[in-house]
What does this fold into?
Amino acid sequence: MDNINDRQKDLNFLEEIIENDLKSGKYKQIITRFPPEPNGYLHIGHAKSICLNFGLAKKYGGKTNLRFDDTNPVKEDVEYVDSIKEDISWLGFQWAEEHYASDYFEQLYEWACLLITKGLAYVDDQTLEEIRINRGTVQTPGKDSPYRNRSVEENLDLFSRMKAGEFSDGEKILRAKIDMSHSNMHMRDPILYRILHSEHHRTGNKWCIYPMYDYAHGQSDSIEKITHSICTLEFDIHRPLYDWFIQKLDIFPSHQYEFARLNLSYTVMSKRKLLQLVKEGYVNGWDDPRMPTISGFRRRGYTAESIRAFCDSIGVAKRDNLIDYSRLEFALREDLNKSAKRVMAVLNPVKLVIDNYFYNGEEMLEAINNPEDESAGTRQLSFSNTLYIEKDDFMENPPNKFFRLAPGKEVRLRYAYFVTCTSVEKDAEGNITTIHCNYDPKSRGGNSPDGRKVKGTIHWVNAKDCIKAEVRLFDRLFTEELPDKTEEGKTFLDYINKDSLQVLNNCFLEKSLADVKPLDKFQFERLGYFSVDYDSNEKKLVFNRACTLKDSWIKSNNS
Ligand code: ATP
Ligand code: MG
It folds into this structure.
């Protein structure tokens, strides 16, 4: 007994419902669906919905359909269909069946005729504005349309002529006949069909009437025998209508369940707004690494596993909340820490010359590929008397606690030797151009020869064989935690972070990175996790920083 209770406690509310439905024999197998509208690229909120729908079906031996909710020809496109499929596959999920609401247009039309025949739908000639006014308010009931009592014959005739294209956009619509004083505004004779003389990306010009979301969605669920139709909280007020259609049409009883949508700090997540960022050039496309799209995260260097882990970790809530962006980075670090090869790269280089290093030929040193994964093995790094180190790792007049390189100070070069700075060379403006050092030959491998302590370890690359690269660093795209919740007279665009992209053109990488390909991921020691960008080619390598090694989102400024 205790065991069962414990188990129930660990289940989220959807799992509880499903387990009960399976136990009671209501369903033998559950079927869920992911129903995107192909009017933009998928974002991280969609990833949550994908992980939930596919995850539940997988856990309970069911299946998940992919259904494109393509009922608005004006905003939809095949480019989006393709990107959506690519993103779901990349996330690691396989749909059982691929469907399009537009495949059901004929059936939906027939059902609309059936509702008319039953006296449950009518053609209305009012303008959208009149309909809006006559709908009333939450406090006041609406007014019946003067066209509400048309005969079944007249309605069937008008509806078929709407379909035949005899009327222009907005001239007529089809409404359900429910109750103009219903306490739920969605039940006050909702619109089922509107006229739209617009070409559809799949059905072309076959149709000039298109079903509304509420009418198409539930019926599409029913056609596919979806057992658990999961959507976000804002649809709970639509549920009575969802149930009304199913009941009046007497079709397979799909059920709708709502959970809290994912909101992420420092970003926006509506496709309309993301489209605006793309169209108006605030970012470089839907897959810009700063975008909260799945394709943006992929390009930035996120792994599918880290996104799935993130979605699982936030759970399934029934109340809206805001998830901190740092939790995504946490999931990525957890994953890449296990899998990413460590390499050395210098982003802001300054030359270091070891004046007492004379080696015949090329010296090779051993480096560990991943301390978290012994099977990743080791690699050989070439060493010479001329290296690059980070400008930041040297200070001419350092404060007390600076443990990196400074005149007269000794530091460990990772996997190599101890070096002590002897002097610097500067250009006419006083910028340091070369740091001169002596090394201790007995400290090979970075080991102390006599127990003397060296606190700082810095990374380096060999100037004689390193590879030049471009590295892109990203900051949050918005300066506000909630760019959507704006002050009077401002929009989310007023909170764009103008410094969200920093391009470093003069970076040097160790030679082992010569043959990388897009999306390969590495830890640049001490700098973060980096991923090869699609813009890389034989002439130039481009890397994106996916995230830093430590949380850079916490508010204090400890670099
Ligand atoms: P947007 O407002 O960004 O355009 P949408 O809800 O209109 O989003 P759809 O393509 O209709 O986008 O959504 C497909 C599915 O993804 C729906 O079931 C929807 O509830 C779910 N979904 C969308 N945004 C989120 C989110 N932020 N968190 C969780 N699920 C979401
Ligand atoms: Mg939508």
User: Anything to note?
Assistant: The first helix runs from residue 2 to 10. The domain at 11-261 is CATH 3.40.50.620 (Rossmann fold).
